[in-house]
Design goal:
alpha+beta; 32 helices; seven-stranded mixed β-sheet; four-stranded antiparallel β-sheet; about 1000 residues
């Protein structure tokens, strides 16, 4: 089974930056574009190109421009990404590496791990030095083995010690775990690590070398496939397999006859005198010739869903089209890779770029349309582009579906799609004789009688007959005998074996679908998971071949099922390869190896002679893989003799043999895996030796027995005298102060945002007292409680941080709304606050920043409609509410400005700013470490403006539901100091831009 060619690298960030110059790319479109490019199952570049054009383009001209930008941002090689592995979890990395290893390699790694553990346990045999000093100097160690347990000593006057037996000295045997010297242990670890490193590399290197050889082969096959696609062809296998018509030849010819009735009015050769005269008069005397019309053959426009250039019925589509062309039917054939025909390629393909559907329809206006697909959808990508609207210029339309299941057998969602297509004038017909005839009659019906495609459908019966089950098992067995069975090969085997096609007719498309169902049920997979090849697992192939040999005999028995299959395959290979790429070089070797493999099973006595000549060639890995598979099948029924297998074993070993030079110099990538395995083994052994479990440590470390002298003290007993203890003065005991809760740490700044400062929840008095100078009527004091802690940005968002997320800088490119002056006049720089931003641009920045940091998106944006589904409970970045902003600005201090009462120390305003804004962090912060809460630029907040905010509630207020203006707070460099008061409330239209208008964001926590 051939591996797909690698997908070219697509620079999505650069594409979106260029696309903004052509079309309007909002937050919603950008989010969907990132989802398309980062999906789990990657798609081809053609599919991604069509989906992005469908998402962003509104006209056919924009579609062409988007397609050109896509090709400009597409490259053949992806840039190195050193951080790609760090984004994966350790479990996924280890699982991927483990599943890529062969079973023998996995067993070897487990054995290497076991050897490492044995090396760790071998420390039991090392000469140790006892840790106990009593061994080195027994006289210096006097151990009291009968001493009573230590008790709280009572006052001296309350006890009396009575000695019962005098003290004496005695000898005693003692065993204890020996101490491992550090130098000896390090030497043992180094030696074990070196041996493990070389051993694991020796085991991994053959697989790595085979992988490099197979990678070179796949690269060559991918180059051949690209050349075939450029010619509009499908790369065929080595076997000579002719495409099979999906219906009997007589039915295909009847359809061609009916399609020949399609007529169009063409231009004749005779001059119509009367009409020419009237046309000349209407043209003001300029001669205008009008010819008599004549009837010409009509054109059939065909759209084929190729599903990535190959699928089970693709060859049947092309065989039917080519047969109709030979019968004289005028056809215009296009292919497309998606569920809907949005961008199409002419067949055979001409040029590198696809054509939009609108251009194709305009070129073939008035033609009837036939769509060949098994997954046709009524809508485009996410419903953004309904391709059916483009078909208004065409005549009759019909859809032939290769899926043999009727609507009653499909899921409800699929049935709804079919019903919608029927209502849009695209009826669905089956790929069967009755279905094709009904479809052709519908397309050639000039009376436009409503079609009845449901009459051509029949329910697909379930597989219940033992004959059908046996035929499907034999069919799958025949496919398992082909190393690289394509769908053409599978259908050719069906037609060549009577025991299969007598039960399951070859032209019937339902037979192939039943084979998919049977294989899916046997292997436990989805029956429709196979697209280019029949997905037979290796275990299922071995089981099917072994059962066939037990039932019909080995392949060398004339007349057995496997014998006939191999002879059919040899006949299809022929005496020489047909394809030019297989007539010399590696292609020729692959063809010769396939011939030799079939002949070796037919003539086991000549197997060694036939296969040994491929040892040491470029196809040696393929030969070794074939012999391993055949060896697994021979366990149940032997084909080759024991002596032959012994020679085959040397062939397999030579294919994976590694020289000492390769061990030290070849395939450097295996050093990383070998080093990791050796390090893990040595670390595990060290942990086992110095394990924290006492039982395991005592088992691993040997015990040293030695004799020591111990002193047995005199035996005595204590007589207590009851004494009255003084009472404690509880009043003099001072209570301990409870520990304060730990404050969450400050989150450092990134290139996309400022640092985040923790603000605890609490209550405060919002508004200003009546005695404050400059107070307005909407600043009435009222009590507000905030129930959630906040992570507030330390400064306003700078121009550099805004550009890192959104890709543009409004301060350098936009004009102010009030007087149309250039925003760049007020200052451009990466450390200056971003200004000239609308309220809508701030919420788009918040969503973009949340997506870049992997947080949930807080705002749902639909044009100018912005909603806040989760409110203050959202964990992503968002604007502060008006109450949160004022609470963060006060910082538990009742001052006029954020931080203090002296304007020149804490804010930039009109009297000290020099008529321009200043960089962030150039004035003193408030008590919570927040800069520029007063002055420099106004800051947008979430709330709609109301003149009576005290009526909104006292628990987490969020402003009214709707109004004319959004609130902005904090004053700016262009206004007086009274506007920078903490309690001052500004407001403006959310779509306006101001040279002194910026913002900062917040995150709710926890």
């Amino acid at each position: 089974m051939s591996a797909p060619s690698p997908t070219p690298y697509f620079d999505l960030d650069r594409f979106l930056q260029l696309a903004r110059q052509v079309v309007a790319v909002g937050v919603r479109e950008e989010e969907r574009a990132y989802r398309l490019a980062s999906r789990e199952r990657p798609v081809s570049s053609t599919v991604l190109r069509a989906q992005l054009a469908s998402l962003l383009a509104k006209t056919s001209e924009q579609s062409r421009q988007i397609g050109a930008l896509f090709d400009e941002c597409l490259s053949s090689e992806a840039p190195p990404d050193p951080d790609s592995r760090s984004r994966e979890s350790l479990r996924k990395i280890l699982r991927r590496y483990w599943t890529q290893l062969r079973p023998a390699t996995r067993t070897t790694l487990l054995l290497a791990l076991l050897l490492g553990m044995i090396g760790g346990v071998s420390v039991r045999l090392w000469p140790y030095t006892p840790h106990d000093p009593c061994v080195r100097d027994p006289a210096a160690c006097k151990v009291d083995v009968h001493s009573p347990p230590s008790l709280p000593r009572p006052p001296q006057s309350s006890v009396r010690i009575v000695e019962d037996e005098p003290a004496r000295v005695d000898t005693q045997q003692r065993s204890e775990p020996a101490e491992i010297p550090a130098r000896s242990w390090l030497a043992l670890c180094a030696l074990s690590a070196l041996l493990l490193l070389l051993g694991v590399r020796w085991l991994l290197l053959p697989g790595r070398l085979r992988h490099l050889q197979m990678q070179t082969q796949r690269a060559a096959e991918a180059a051949l496939a690209r050349e075939a696609r450029a010619r509009g062809e499908v790369l065929r296998p080595s076997y000579r397999v002719d495409p099979i018509l999906p219906v009997p030849r007589s039915v295909a010819e009847d359809c061609a006859t009916l399609l020949g009735r399609l007529r169009d009015e063409g231009r004749g050769t005779d001059l119509d005198v009367l009409r020419t005269l009237f046309a000349t008069v209407r043209a003001g005397g300029r001669f205008t010739a009008v010819h008599t019309p004549r009837s010409v053959g009509g054109e059939l426009l065909v759209f084929i869903d190729d599903e990535g250039r190959d699928h089970p019925w693709l060859s049947s589509y092309f065989a039917l089209i080519e047969h109709w062309q030979r019968q004289g039917v005028r056809l215009a054939v296009y292919t497309y890779p998606e569920e809907f025909p949005h961008f199409l390629d002419p067949y055979p393909r001409v040029g590198l770029h696809s054509q939009p559907l609108a251009d194709v329809v305009r070129q073939h206006a008035g033609s009837v349309l036939l769509i060949l697909s098994r997954r046709l959808s009524p809508d485009g990508f996410c419903g953004e582009h309904a391709w059916t609207h483009e078909l208004a210029q065409l005549g009759q339309c019909a859809w032939v579906d290769a899926d043999p299941r009727s609507a009653a057998d499909l899921a409800k969602a699929r049935t709804d799609q079919i019903t919608r297509l029927q209502q849009l004038g695209i009826p669905r017909y089956p790929l069967s004789p009755q279905g094709l005839l009904s479809m052709v009659r519908h397309l050639t019906n000039k009376d436009e009688t409503p079609p009845q495609p449901e009459l051509a459908w029949t329910r697909l019966p379930r597989l219940s007959s033992p004959k059908e089950q046996r035929a499907l098992r034999l069919w799958a067995t025949a496919a398992a005998l082909v190393p690289d069975a394509s769908w053409d090969q599978v259908r050719a085997l069906q037609g060549a074996l009577p025991e299969i096609h007598d039960v399951l007719p070859a032209p019937d498309t339902r037979s192939l679908f039943r084979l998919l169902e049977w294989v899916g049920r046997e292997s436990g997979e989805n029956p429709e998971s196979g697209i280019t090849h029949l997905h037979l697992s290796q275990s299922l192939q071995d089981r099917l071949v072994s059962e066939s040999r037990r039932e019909f005999g080995p392949p060398d028995h004339v007349g057995s099922f496997e014998n006939r299959v191999h002879r059919i395959l040899l006949g299809q290979l022929g005496d020489a390869p047909r394809a030019p790429e297989q007539q010399q070089g590696r292609g020729r070797l692959i063809w010769e190896l396939k011939v030799a493999m079939h002949q070796a099973l037919l003539y086991p006595g000549r197997a060694l002679e036939l296969l040994s000549r491929f040892v040491g060639t470029g196809v040696a890995p393929l030969l070794a893989a074939y012999l391993r598979n055949e060896q697994a099948r021979q366990r149940h029924s032997a084909v080759f003799a024991g002596a032959t297998w012994s020679n085959f074993g040397s062939i397999v070993s030579q294919a994976g043999r590694v020289s000492p030079r390769d061990l030290l110099l070849g395939a450097r990538r295996t050093w990383g895996m070998a080093s990791l395995c050796a390090l893990l083994c040595v670390s595990l052994a060290s942990l086992l030796v110095y394990a924290p479990l006492p039982t395991l440590r005592a088992w691993l470390r040997p015990n040293v027995t030695h004799t020591v002298e111990v002193e047995i003290p005199a035996e005595s007993h204590v007589e207590r005298v009851e004494t009255k203890l003084p009472a404690l003065d509880i009043k003099q005991t001072k209570p301990t102060k409870p520990a304060e809760p730990e404050k969450p740490p400050k989150l450092p700044a990134t290139p996309q945002r400022p640092a985040l400062v923790w603000i605890p929840p609490g209550s405060f008095t919002m508004g200003s007292p009546e005695s404050e100078e400059g107070r307005d009527n909407d600043e009435k004091q009222h009590r507000v409680t905030l129930t959630r802690g906040l992570y507030v940005m330390e400064t306003e968002v700078t121009q550099g941080q805004y550009k890192a997320v959104q890709g543009n800088n409004p301060a350098a490119s936009e004009k102010e709304t009030s007087d149309s002056s250039e925003c760049s006049e007020y200052g451009v720089g990466t450390t200056l606050p971003v200004h000239c931003v609308t309220w809508f641009e701030t919420v788009r920045y918040a969503n973009g920043l949340s997506m870049k940091e992997g947080l949930e998106v807080c705002y749902a944006i639909n044009g100018d409609q912005v909603t806040w589904p989760k409110g203050v409970q959202c964990r992503g970045f968002r604007l502060l509410t008006e109450a949160e902003w004022e609470y963060a600005a006060w910082a538990s201090m009742r001052t006029v400005y954020a931080g203090g009462n002296r304007s020149d120390e804490y804010l930039w305003y009109d009297e000290n700013s020099g008529s321009s804004m200043h960089a962030v962090r150039t004035r003193r912060p408030n008590a919570w470490g927040l800069y520029d809460m007063s002055g420099n630029v106004w800051e947008w907040v979430w709330d709609w403006y109301t003149e009576e905010p005290w009526k909104l509630g006292d628990i987490d207020p969020v402003g009214p539901l709707n109004s004319l203006d959004r609130v902005s707070r904090g004053g700016s460099w262009a206004n007086g100091a009274q506007y920078a008061r903490v309690a001052n409330r500004g407001h403006d239209d959310p779509g306006s831009r101001g040279g002194a208008q910026g913002f900062r964001l917040v995150r709710s926590f926890p």
